[in-house]
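Quick one - first record:
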Amino acid sequence: MAEATPYTLIDGRKISSDIKKEITEKVIERRQLGKKVPHLAIILVGDDGASQTYVDHKVKACKEVGFHYTMMRFADTISEDKLMKHIDQVNRDEDVDGFIVQLPLPQHISVERITEKIRPDKDVDGFTNRNFGSIVSKNPLLLPATPYGVMELLKRYKIETEGKNCVVIGASRLVGAPLSMMLVEEGRATVTVCHKYTKDISSFTRQADILVVAVGKPGIVTGDMVKQGAVVIDVGTTRVEGPQYKNGYALKGDVDFQAVAPKASYITPVPGGVGPMTIASLLLNTLRATELRNP
């Protein structure tokens, strides 16, 4: 049996804080030069508690780095056509550089139609088809926020990806699919994508130099599925309720941290790993959108 290796905890909170400081300095510089300050617009539909929390964090982050922001709230009874008209207004507002519609949306509203209605050069979540497709170009426009955050963690911890065997569990449009493309295009890695139809996932994960898990199933990756010295990136965040938890619930990742960490060389915690990087990436995209339209 191989000896356990001391692992390095990938601190997403620290890296996110570092990025915010870098952005703050650039915003101060833009102000001093008389250039446009980034402006993020956020649409929130309904009163979902988790969505409200995410939006509050985004607003707080805007305040931290000195961005302008606009919050637009609508009842969950708003029609799809009416919401589209509001999106058109924000698209036409040249003072708004970045624009997001907080997900999930009510069932009567098509996420695909709403997403595609957002101008690609303002789509700081990176969800539109144009931004998704631009990943395979040499000059992508605005990258999907969570995958962008994962790539930043790898880069800032100087984790080598070129030529490495990467396995991504989860093929969602939001994380797994774009991240696998980014690992190939930017990371120059050899990438395998596993999903719910994959037979014997463990046979793939045990070969991974870098394992990324993004399925939203707590503890799905166990110690016997990971090879010694692997880099493990846990994107999953699921609220698990129970009387054993101090607040009545706990946030759990897709990786069984206690079992996997001793075998890992690097590993992200949940919470505090990839989560904070999503908002940091949103800010980076908003700054980039501003710089592209107002150099």
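second record:
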Amino acid sequence: MSYAQLEKFIFEKITQTKLPGLSMALIKGDEVVWSRGFGYRDVERGLPATDHSLYSIGSVTKSFTCLAIMQLVEQGKLSVDDPIEKYMPFDIHPYGETVCIKHFMSHTSGIAALGYAEQLIGAIIGSTEDWLPIATATDMLAFLQGAEDWVWTKPGERWFYFNEGYVLLGAIIEQVSGLSYEEYIHQHILAPLNMTRSFFAQKDVETDSDVAVPYVNWAQQGRTIGKYVYSGVGAAGGLISNVLDLAKYASMYLKNGQPVAKASSVAEMIKPRVNTPVVNGLFGDETYGYGLAAKSNFLGSKLVNHGGSVGVATAYMAFMPEQNIAAAILTNGSGYATGQFAMYGLAMLLGQDPEALPYVRHERQMMELEGVYQSFRNTMRFEIHRAGDCLMLKENDKFGTNSAILIPESIEPNLRRFYVQTNGVKVYTDFYVDDKGIQMIHERYLMHKTGTLS
């Protein structure tokens, strides 16, 4: 199979979003069928990204944490039904009920996200001057005092992504196993899977010869060198790895846990425990199990996945058990959604046309509308820019810029309808597309697309 189409897509998107570098691997069974790096692991020194380059995997670490919990369950050392307070002084009881290990694993404690990781990471990479001194689980317990007012539901009823709970899960692993969290993961997951270049410690990362520099990357404001987070995130998002090691990890799930866990443990991790807020999305409902999420209908099959971000790096791992395929992707900045790169590649492995994926088709149709529009004899001139899933209409003159957000209502090949919400009513803007060009009707004006944006 030729992967030129995938490579073209990746290059296009990292160019548009100004991502410094990206590494990706596609897997069938236990074989890496394609892998490579794009762009730079180090822009300043001109060093290219490779499929061996190290990046933070962020919250993909959560699946390692849950796999470790399931291993300890297999050993009879704990149960996912154990109360958190069995292991530490955790005294939040949502509506009088007990928070158990399984609730932290599935983000169903009933406590809304408290933003610890966001602020901790922001302080370390320099995006905020606020400080949150959470280095250990005991620090987390201190931070959680008073969080009773952030309880929203009973345990098990609703999904609230709860990084805080994963820090405490790491401490439970330490207490039950007698090892540090990092050493447990190394001995019981990384080493058996021969993931020889996956690390938690700064000294291990910084002495490696192929490390991606972390960047705070903004398409408009430019990029600055950031820092990886080596403390305070641990079991919630502290692992640094590469796509070839993650390929070994993904293959383990395709082999029902061999050689590190029983098939029943993997089945428990994948089993849906709660719906996420994405219902009837592009690929069906999205659910969460134990450290792994899932899309119910990606091209007719279940797609198990997890993403991660630490501000200076993004990650995504996905596998399709029924199809025996997987993908891993890592970047050293924020830009185009990593999951959408992965799904493009997985569609190719399935023999499907990735350009027919709904998000790709939508992007193409939106990009086609960007440009300069002019009325009769150029009496009026508007610019149309993409703004996420919307469009931005701009009218410039020497006194400034008038702008409006155009919200999509229907996107069809020949008619793409948007609206502006004004004084409680919808005012429509229609784009008519045919082989002669693009015409826009905005309020009273008929405009022709006459050029591209500078």
